[in-house]
Amino acid sequence: MANENTSSIKIMPPDFNREVHCLLGLPFDAVNMPSAVRRIRASAADRSPCFLSTPNLNFLIAAQSDAAFRNSVINSHLSIADGMPLIWIARLLGIPIRERVAGSALFDALRLDTGKPLSVFFFGGPDGAAEAACRQLNLKKRGLTCAGFESPGFGTIEEMSDDGIIQRINASNADFLVVSLGAKKGQAWIERNRGRITVPVISHLGAVVNFVAGTVLRAPVWMQNTGLEWLWRIKEDPALWRRYFWDGLALLKLLAVRVLPYVWFLLRHKPVDGQLTAGVETTEDEENFIIHLRGVWTLQNIQTLRDCFIKAARAEKDVRLEMSGVTYVDSAFVGLVMLLQGHQSQSLGQLKIEHMPARVRRIFKYCCSESLC
Fold it and tell me: Which of 11, 176, 293, 371 could cross-link to 201 by cystine, CB 3.0-4.6 Å?
């Protein structure tokens, strides 16, 4: 849903050529670290918007029950898997998201990059952390420098969105705005204000401010790569144990009711290459762009659908997906539909999915994407 700051702004269609996969209700780009760095640097170079989301297990669990939070990730220009449990589940389901690209590691990669330095603006964090991070970043000017900082305290999103704050951020002429307000609050603040902010790259990287400031130490690389970073984080901040405990219980439930049933379903129903036949036809009336689909839709044959969704988004009408002839879809299809749904929601249009067969509806359920149906 558009808010008071973005409702008058023309919503540009998403990049339907991204390789996006739906994993337990959230879209994830199949990217590695070098390609993520290139994407950030390209957006900074031509000043094109890039809202970067870094979903980890906590994001994934919170998004199950918080539609606004889930939509903030769907509306991102780039969504990277920041958590080894996500990578393990993707491998189990045959989803080609093979590498963890943590937000803090991406920041470090940009910091060590030998290209033209990018300027960073820190917004949020504990009292004094943003200032200390700015000072530390400028001590060794390499791939990143600091253009400024703002410590808004613990006010409401509305209080942190006044014109003075936005003007100071824009006046910095920074390339990269790093937000640190807590995941839900940070994503909501970005969604509310990104239409007013001229900094091209925006991301909520909560712990990065503390890491750069030196107030919190990062886990050793071997712990990051083996999925044990949470133990280190608890050592650094013991209060985090509650979050990890409840997230772990929620993950066990998802494994039992979504992931393992999906694995069994794939073993019995996944089509072979010779069955990848599909077709698409489009029609329009005054109010609707209608897409008639049939057959099997997977990453291997989805390019036609990407082109179709681009036309649908540009039509600026309600979109209807007629799916009575569809026999199978995969995570790439569901991810692409999520992008279309996000665009329609932002532009105040509707996406209607009609006549979805029971087997396909089951796949959407296993992907935690029933809301699309």
Answer: 176
